[in-house]
Amino acid sequence: MGLRDENGGFVFDSAMLQKQANLPSEFLWPQEDLVEAQEELNEPLIDLGGFKRGDEVETARAAELLSKACSEHGFFQVTNHGIDATIIQAAHNEIDTFFNLPLDKKLSLRKKPGSLNANGYSGAHAHRFQSKLPWKETYTLLHHENDPSNPNIIVDYCKSVMGEDFEHTGWICQRYCNALKELGLLITELLAISLGVDRFHYRNFFEDCVSMMRCNYYPPCQNPGLTFGTGPHCDPNSLTILHQDQVGGLEVFSNNKWKAIRPEPGALVVNIGDTFMALCNGRYKSCLHRAMVNRNLERKTIAFFLSPREDRVVRPPQELFSREEPRKYPDFTWPEFWEFSQKHYRSDVTTIDNFIKWKLSSKPSGTFTSVA
């Protein structure tokens, strides 16, 4: 049995749960979902060094690798990305600081059930779901680097909500997000080149983006074959840039098989989300992926999510649709899709299609045409 709070909600006390021989029923997943990966994805390892130097041959090579990967499954890894290893290590140290806090402190920072505010702690996403819970804890921080009214939004949040003692945590996470945002913008340039559109089209679109940092902690699990660290899902945002430790556990569903992504020292994993799939008119894929748990080892990752500013209209550039290749998605905004994805039971391969059906059914007929 797991702990319950004063409202009867499930409390993820990993220290207590790891001592139990049997997994609480809230964490059990159907056996057909738990098929193990038998091979690796072999996603490309893209060296960004030549692209950053302006080397045309290396840029063309990187764009070719990216295009092939994103057309098939939407995952690749990048090296020579320019993120200082000391910043990454400092951010991981702050993960340790936070997830080692007493349980009552973490619970005081929980996300509220039904809230669309991304900030806060979650134990097994119990604020959203009651079954098929993920075996993990998360802490999410919203990042608006270009908000002139609050350039240090993470620092202010950590001080005001977590306490003055967490100002240092705030500065570390702010620096990490600022650096990852710049990398994200650089990757959007390479994506544009690979798609044959203006190099700065997506960079300009995301310059004043909404982004957030999610710290993930996956404790050891005595029954790893019965549950997931994160269940199968697609990311609703535009781009995800993930730093994972060397434990491994990330898997992608490609060609009707689950395939593992091997951690590469110094590399960052990048994947396409649903919103960018709409921004490129479906040419690049947002792919189902999941995180496994380990019987003996804890696993920690930091995910950085890039999304459009709230009032930006998600629409592919003109070059990517025509009468021969009509538009696949109507115009929408990120807040519309974010709200839908949070109220939908799971973010999976059907989420964006279900969102489009919902959006079209709630608008007057004729507001979306599938041709140029």
TrEMBL record:
Organism: Quercus lobata
Residues of the Fe2OG dioxygenase domain: 209-308
Annotated metabolic or biological route of this protein: Plant hormone biosynthesis; gibberellin biosynthesis; Hormone biosynthesis
Name listed for the protein in its UniProt record: Fe2OG dioxygenase domain-containing protein
Cofactor: L-ascorbate
Chain's gene name: LOC115962827
Keywords (A to Z) from UniProt: Iron, Metal-binding, Oxidoreductase
GO molecular function term, any single one: gibberellin 20-oxidase activity
Family classification: Belongs to the iron/ascorbate-dependent oxidoreductase family. GA20OX subfamily.
Catalysed reactions, semicolon-separated: gibberellin A12 + 2 2-oxoglutarate + 3 O2 + H(+) = gibberellin A9 + 2 succinate + 3 CO2 + 2 H2O
